[in-house]
Specification:
The protein has two domains: 102 residues; 61 residues. The chain is elongated. The protein starts with a helix and ends in a 5-residue tail after the last helix. Helix 1 runs antiparallel to helix 4, helix 5 runs antiparallel to helix 7 and helix 6 packs antiparallel against helix 7. The model has no long low-confidence stretch (mean pLDDT 90). By secondary structure, the protein is mainly alpha-helical.
Length: 168
């Protein structure tokens, strides 16, 4: 691969992953604001409204379990979940910024954070495969393979640069 095409593949590949990570952060941020809006509401009623909107049968086990679980959520638990979501948002935005700026630490972080989900994704595919789960897994595999390829290429370039004789 030529130096120019190598640069373009690295540049646009990292920018694409950065946009993807920022999108996940933005989606989580919206979810976090929604959770904040639930602070002073009856979560059982909110859960009931969500389940009715999804047309889930009130006699279904999932319906009853969801309503019962919502009734046990305390203000403290809600704030813990909100805090966790905001930490996740910060991590996604920091990773996205690092990838956008083509920082090596962000490449490693993205590689590791993407690869860490793969065992769980494989488990979910074995348990009950769906087009959605295959899509998520496929995107994750592409990201991991791309970042792995990128790190190997950079390592080769550094190794080749060390072998070149120094010019006077």
């Amino acid at each position: 691969m030529s130096e120019r095409s190598n640069f373009l593949v690295k540049h646009f590949g990292l920018r694409g992953i950065a946009i993807f990570e920022a999108s996940k952060g933005l989606l989580a941020l919206v979810g976090g604001f929604w959770l904040i809006s639930l602070r002073h509401k009856d979560l059982s009623l909110v859960a009931e409204h969500i389940l009715e909107s999804l047309h889930i049968n009130p006699d279904h086990h999932l319906y009853r379990t969801f309503i019962r679980g919502a009734g046990h959520v305390t203000t403290r638990t809600l704030w813990l979940v909100i805090s966790g979501v905001l930490v996740y948002v910060a991590i996604r935005f920091i990773e996205a910024a690092g990838l956008w700026l083509e920082r090596e630490w962000a490449e490693w972080f993205a590689l590791l954070s993407s690869a860490m989900y793969m065992p769980w994704e494989i488990y979910e595919l074995i348990r009950r495969a769906s087009a959605f789960k295959w899509g998520i897994f496929g995107v994750n595999v592409i990201i991991v393979l791309y970042l792995l390829w990128l790190r190997i290429e950079i390592h080769r370039e550094k190794k080749a640069a060390k072998r070149l004789p120094e010019l006077p």
